[in-house]
Amino acid sequence: MKALPNILTSMRLVLALFMFVALAAASGSVPGLAERLDAPQQFALERWAVYAFVVAAVTDFFDGWLARKLDATSIWGAILDPIGDKVLVCGAVLGLLSLGPQPMVVLPAGLILFREFTVSALREVGAGKGVKLPVTRLAKWKTTLQLTALALELIVAAWGAFSLPDDPALRGPATFGAHALFWLAALVTLITGAQYWEQTRKALS
Question: Is the pLDDT of residue 78 over 90?
Answer without folding.
Answer: no
